[in-house]
Design brief:
Elements lengths: L17 H5 L5 H12 L3 H10 L8 H17 L2 H17 L1 E4 L4 E4 L3 H22 L5 H17 L11 H11 L7 H10 L15 H10 L3 H6 L6 H17 L13
Antiparallel strand pairs: 1-2
């Protein structure tokens, strides 16, 4: 793992955190896709994304995707000032945009508390689930620590720390409570199909060959209830096969260079 010069301000987490250790793992790219599929099942969030985001504009989608990845990197490894600048931009964007919900006829703000919490929980559940099943997180205790640490990330985008789950059990309780509000709206299904044909720049065009397999793995890692909402059967044998595949992929990507992270002075 690469190292940069020591520094005194290590941001939200720091070199002793589970978060810093886990986020060097290439397998978390699968978790990022899983998070998008899961987040899409909350109709207001998905419709707001569809109505406002460049993710569905093939000319701008790749740049939008890279900005999201950059935000996660800054949030994870940036200094306190860097994190606050990046989070302030996100908060300002959310505060300025609205979406329209055809189910209720309402226009709503993108920074609705429940929507923000849903996006956070879907993201963190995806990271911790993929990390645990692939072996990047070796114990349930480490997994719970990761979820607890993620409350700091929730807070910087406008979620009250006490509202964010602090353990995998609390995450499960959150999903059980919100599930009656979830379904795969038309925009979610379009997003799923769109993800299999990403607008990669020409120099990355060869990666298109691997995209379907990566997407299938990410989709297969969703909870059974989430796959059923998309209309896909969920069988125990497929869950076991997905876990085995995740472990194999993590082992295969172990030779890839890891991102450089700062050390503490």
């Amino acid at each position: 793992m690469g190292r940069t010069a020591p520094r005194t301000d290590t941001g939200l987490f720091g070199p002793g955190s589970v978060t810093w250790r886990v986020h060097t793992e290439p397998i978390l790219w699968v978790a990022g896709l899983r998070a998008l599929y899961l987040q899409s099942l909350y109709p207001r969030v998905m419709r707001a994304t569809y109505q406002n985001s460049a993710l569905f504009d093939r000319k701008r989608a790749w740049a939008r995707f890279l900005r999201t990845a950059e935000f996660v990197t800054v949030r994870t490894y940036g200094t306190s000032a860097e994190v606050e600048r990046a989070a302030a931009r996100v908060r300002a964007i959310h505060a300025a945009l609205t979406g329209y919900d055809p189910d209720t006829g309402e226009t709503f703000r993108l920074d609705e508390p429940e929507g923000l919490l849903w996006v956070h929980c879907a993201e963190i559940d995806s990271y911790v689930d993929i990390a645990r099943r692939s072996g990047a997180l070796r114990t349930d205790a480490d997994a719970d620590t990761y979820v607890a640490e993620s409350r700091r990330a929730a807070e910087v985008i406008g979620i009250k720390r006490e509202d964010a789950p602090a353990s995998r059990a609390a995450l499960a309780d959150f999903f059980a409570e919100i599930r009656p509000k979830l379904y795969a709206c038309t925009e979610a299904r379009r997003g799923l199909v769109h993800s299999f044909h990403p607008p990669l720049p020409w120099k990355l065009a060869p990666l298109r060959l691997g995209v379907p397999s990566l997407n299938v793995l990410a989709f297969s890692s969703l909870p059974g209830w989430a796959r059923r909402l998309y209309g896909v059967p969920a069988l125990p044998a497929s869950d076991l096969a997905t876990t085995v595949t995740l472990r194999m992929v993590r082992q295969a990507t172990g030779i890839l260079p890891r991102p450089e992270i700062p050390t503490q002075a």
